[in-house]
Amino acid sequence: MTGDLPLIEVACGVLQRADGQVLLAQRPEGKIAAGYWEFPGGKIEPGESADEALLRELHEELGVAVRAARPLIRLRHAYHNRIVILDTWLVTDFDGQPQSRENQALAWVALDAIAAYTTLPTVAPILKPLRLPAHYVFTPPTIDPATLRDRLPALPGDALLRLRLPALDDRAYAALAASLRRGGHRLVLDRDPALSRELECGWHATTRAWRALRQRPDVPAFYGSAHGRADLDALRRLDADAAVLGAVLPTASHPGEPTLGWDGFAGAALESGLPVYAIGGVGREHLLYAWQHGGQGCAGISAYW
Ligand SMILES: Nc1nc2c([nH]c(=O)n2[C@@H]2O[C@H](COP(=O)(O)OP(=O)(O)OP(=O)(O)O)[C@@H](O)[C@H]2O)c(=O)[nH]1
Q: Which cofactor does it need (predicted)?
C-alpha cells in the first residue's frame, strides 16, 4: 500500500511488427478500467520477476511465446484508486499469432493512429521511447563539416544526431543542418528553435536553456540535458520527449566531474516518466547496461566518432 492506495506491479509488452504497428488490447468487461485500450500484460505474481511475468501473461492472454524482449520503460502512475508500476518491455521476437484468449479485443495499430483509441493514461508515455532510437550522438565540437560528412556512415544507422558545433556561425550551421536533413538524418539542433521548426528537426536544450522555460518550446521534438532526478522531473513537466542524464562514468573530457555510476543512473531514470539516455564515458558497447538500468540507450561524443 502507498498511503491508502494499493500498489500494483505489472509487466506489459509492446509487440511490434516489421511495419511498425503495435498490438493493443482492449480491457474486457468485468476488469478494472474495462473498455480502455492498453498494451497486453498483467500483474507480477509474488516471487516472479518482471520478465517472467511478461512471458507468462503474454502466453496466457495471447497464446504467444516471447523469444526476445528488452526493457523499454518503467512507469509509475497514480490512479484515484491504485498506484501502478508498469514494467514495459519491447518484444522483438515471438512465436505464434496473437489470439484473444481472455475475451479482449485486439488491434494492430500504427503509432500515429493510436490517438484515435481510448487508451489508459500510461499508453502515451510509452509512445515516447517507442519512437526513439537507442543511440543519441553529439558531434565533436570542433569537427569540420567535411570530416563530419565522411564519418556519418560509421554511426548507428537510425541514431539521433545532435549538431553541437559552437564554432560555426548561424548561417553556416543552418546550411549544414539543411543539407544533412535532405540526406535523411535524424537531426537535433541547438540554436534558435525556429530553425528546428523550419527543418522539422529536434531541439536540444542545455540545463541552462531549459531552466529558463515555462512551457514546452514549440519544436517537433524536445530533448534536454539533466544531472539528476530533479532535472528529469522538471523536463517531464515541460513535456520533453527525452533527456540525457550524466555523467554516468568518468570521462577524459571532464576529469574529476562527479559521476552517477549505473546504479545512480537507474535511481534517477527509473519511473521518471521519460526516456533517458546515459551519457558520460558511455558508448555503443554500453547499450545493454543502459537498458538494464532503465535507460533508453546511450549518448556520447568521443565514443562514437
Ligand atoms: N496490462 C496492462 N495493464 C495496465 C497498463 N496500464 C495500466 O495502468 N495498467 C494497469 O495495470 C493493472 C493490470 O492489472 P490486470 O487486471 O490487467 O492484471 P491481470 O491480467 O493479472 O488480471 P487479474 O487481476 O484479473 O488476474 C490494471 O490496474 C491496469 O489498469 C497497460 O498498458 N497494460
A: Mg(2+)
The CA distances from residue 145 to 139, 148, 150, in Å, are 10, 5, 9
What does the chain come to in residues?
305
Domains located in the chain, CATH noted = 7-126 (3.90.79.10), 135-304 (3.20.20.70)
Sequence-ordered alpha helix ranges (H) in 238-281: 261-269
Rounded distance from Cα 10 to ligand 1 centre (Å) = 6
β-pairing, 202-205 vs 221-226, is parallel
E-strand stretches of 200-261: 202-205, 221-226, 242-245
| Gap between the Cα atoms of 152 and 124, Å rounded | 32
- For ligand 1, pick from 5, 9, 10, 27 the residue to mutate: most ligand atoms within 8 Å of CB: 10
Closest CA to 33 of 86, 69, 97: 86
Q: What is the pTM (predicted TM-score) of this model?
A: 0.95
Residue 124 is placed in which grid cell?
Answer: 502515451
